[in-house]
Amino acid sequence: MKKVITTPNAPAPIGPYNQAILTGNTLYISGQIPMDPATGKLIEGDIKKETAQSMENLKAILTEAGMTFENVVKSSIFVKDMHQFAAINEVYGAYFDAETAPARETVEVANLPKFVNVEISMIAIK
């Protein structure tokens, strides 16, 4: 059985999907972009701030589900420009212990929703 996880502390979906779905002990979190949930405005112009906002949105959803970044087993990072990878990785890495960090892929794409520079999704296990 699936349970919809939603929180006002992360951006509301901009399409026909939910912030996250919990099924059994597994949480599937939809891709989070650098949108401030309080204002609905995009964070733009600084890839580190954009990545941090995406991670904070993910953190809010994890918290709503009773989890932390320690529960994350898989991340997917989508970037518009792979030349920004080092800066993205620096911010992303600050949210994890290097020895227990999740599996991950980083993929450069032509465009992302709302034409942002970064989008991150995660899978977590209780």
TrEMBL record:
Gene3D superfamilies per record: RutC-like
SUPFAM superfamilies, alphabetized: YjgF-like
InterPro entries, sorted: RidA (IPR006056), RutC-like_sf (IPR035959), YjgF/YER057c/UK114 (IPR006175)
Sequence similarity: Belongs to the RutC family.
Matching PANTHER family: 2-IMINOBUTANOATE/2-IMINOPROPANOATE DEAMINASE RIDA, PROTEIN HMF1-RELATED
Stated name of the protein: RidA family protein
